[in-house]
């Protein structure tokens, strides 16, 4: 036996966007209290900073190499200067 007509779904507002598009705050970290853990954290921070600096330096060198190729910032500036001079 038929119970009745089917209920239709209401139209949705569309996909929901996150309110904050920037980076989310990370979980809070409790600072170590024991001397051994403090020393270990300082060493880890120092080594991590060194690795980050070295990685950024390598990336900058590679990006600098790309600037020497055609289509870099210098070529774009030259093209825009020529376009302004033509007007």
UniProtKB/TrEMBL annotation:
Residues 1-42 are annotated as: Disordered. Pfam families: DUF2462. Transmembrane segments: none annotated. Coiled coil: none annotated. It comes from the Eukaryota. Residues 1-10, 31-42 have a biased composition (Basic residues). Belongs to the UPF0390 family. This is Uncharacterized protein. It comes from Aspergillus ibericus CBS 121593.
């Amino acid at each position: 036996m038929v119970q009745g007509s089917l209920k239709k779904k209401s139209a949705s507002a569309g996909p929901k966007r996150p309110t904050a598009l920037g980076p989310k705050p990370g979980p809070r970290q409790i600072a170590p209290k024991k001397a051994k853990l403090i020393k270990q954290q300082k060493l880890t921070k120092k080594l991590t900073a060194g690795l980050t600096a070295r990685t950024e330096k390598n990336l900058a060198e590679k990006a600098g190499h790309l600037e020497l190729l055609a289509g870099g910032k210098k070529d774009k500036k030259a093209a825009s200067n020529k376009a302004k001079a033509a007007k």
